[in-house]
Design goal:
There is one protein chain. The chain is mostly beta strands. It has a single domain, classed as Sandwich (Jelly Rolls). It contains 2 helices and 23 strands. It has a 7-stranded mixed beta sheet with strand order 1-3-4-11-6-9-12, with no helix packed on it. Strand 18 and strand 19 form a beta hairpin. The termini are far apart.
C-alpha cells in the first residue's frame, strides 16, 4: 500500500502567525512507519520527498507515484535509503542489497521500481536528479566521520557523512546522521540556516516517552516542535534547525538544493536567537 501526502511551501511571514496545531501540520513529519505500507511526504521544498517503508517480513514495491507524473518514481530522481530497523533487503534494476541497521543505500536516477523486503524499517529520501549515477551501498565503516562539540556544552556528537562529496557523488542529495555522546543533548550548536538548500531531519533510537525539542523558524522569530521517536521535521531554507533531546537519540539529516557543500552554513550564535 502506498500513501502520499503533499506539503506546500510556507512563507516565513505566514509561519509567524501559526498556532501549534498549524505549525505541526505543515512542518512535522509523522506517521511514516506503518507495517505493510510505504508512506511518503512530497514537499514543495526543492521537491524533496521523505517517508518510510516497513515490509514487515513481506515485500513492498515503490514504482509509480502520481505526484511526480513519471512512469516510475526514479525516472527523474535519485534516492537515499537508511535502514533504521533490523536487517532487510532493497532491490532495484536487477540488483539487490542487504542493509543492516544504520546502512545507507544510494539509488541513482533511472533505477526503476524499488522493492523493500525483510525486517527492515526503511527511511526514504529523494530529490530530482539531472543524470544517472552508480548505485552504492555505504556502510558505517565507509562513511566520513566528523567529531564535534564538547561535554561542557552538552553537544558532543559524532557526524557520519554517507551521501556526501567526500564519500561519493550525487546530483543534489546530501545525507548522513548524527549520534549524540552520552550526557549530551544538543544536536546542532550553533544553529544555522542555508538559504541555498532545504533540510529534513528524522529522529530515531529514542525511548517511547522521550522527546526532542526541535527549534525552527527565522533566527529572530523562532518556533518549536516536540518530536517523538521516528518522527521528523521539514526545514525550509529560511529556517534554523537544531534541537535538544531527552535521553539517547540519533537524527538523520538530508538536504537538497543548489549545492552539495555541507559546510555552506550561515551560523547564528545562541545570543542572537530570539
Amino acid at each position: 500500500m502506498l500513501t502520499v501526502t503533499t506539503r506546500h511551501a510556507v512563507h516565513p511571514e505566514q509561519a509567524k502567525t501559526m498556532d501549534t496545531a498549524t505549525l505541526r501540520r505543515h512542518f512535522l513529519a509523522d506517521e511514516m512507519f506503518v507495517a505493510g505500507e510505504i508512506r511518503l511526504i512530497y514537499t514543495h521544498y526543492d521537491r524533496f520527498v521523505m517517508g518510510g517503508a516497513v515490509p514487515g517480513n513481506g515485500s513492498l514495491v515503490l514504482d509509480r507515484v502520481e505526484e511526480t507524473k513519471t512512469a516510475s518514481f526514479l525516472d527523474r530522481r535519485e534516492m537515499g535509503v537508511v535502514n533504521i530497523g533490523e536487517t532487510g533487503t532493497v532491490s532495484a534494476g536487477g540488483e539487490s542489497w542487504e542493509l543492516a541497521r544504520g546502512d545507507v543505500l544510494y539509488l541513482g536516477m533511472g533505477a526503476g521500481a524499488v522493492t523493500f523486503a525483510g525486517a527492515g524499517r526503511f527511511y526514504i529520501t529523494s530529490c530530482p536528479a539531472h543524470r544517472s549515477l552508480p548505485h552504492r551501498l555505504i556502510r558505517l565503516a565507509d562513511s566520513k566521520e566528523v567529531r564535534l562539540g564538547a561535554t561542557e556544552t552538552s553537544n558532543k556528537r559524532v557526524i557520519n557523512q554517507f551521501i556526501h562529496p567526500l564519500v561519493m557523488e550525487s546530483c543534489q542529495l546530501v545525507l548522513g546522521y548524527t549520534m549524540l555522546e552520552d550526557g549530551s543533548v544538543w544536536n546542532t550548536i550553533p544553529s544555522h540556516i542555508h538559504d541555498r538548500r532545504m533540510e529534513a531531519y528524522l529522529y530515531f533510537g529514542m525511548d517511547e516517552k522521550s522527546r526532542v525539542l526541535h527549534l525552527m523558524g527565522e533566527p529572530q522569530e523562532t518556533r518549536h516542535l516536540f518530536i517523538a521517536n521516528e518522527q521528523g521535521a521539514i526545514s525550509p531554507p529560511w529556517s534554523v534547525h537544531s534541537g535538544a533531546g531527552i535521553g539517547s537519540y540519533t537524527f538523520i539529516w538530508a538536504m537538497a538544493g543548489d549545492n552539495v557543500d555541507y559546510t555552506d552554513m550561515d551560523f547564528i550564535q545562541p545570543g542572537d536567537l530570539r
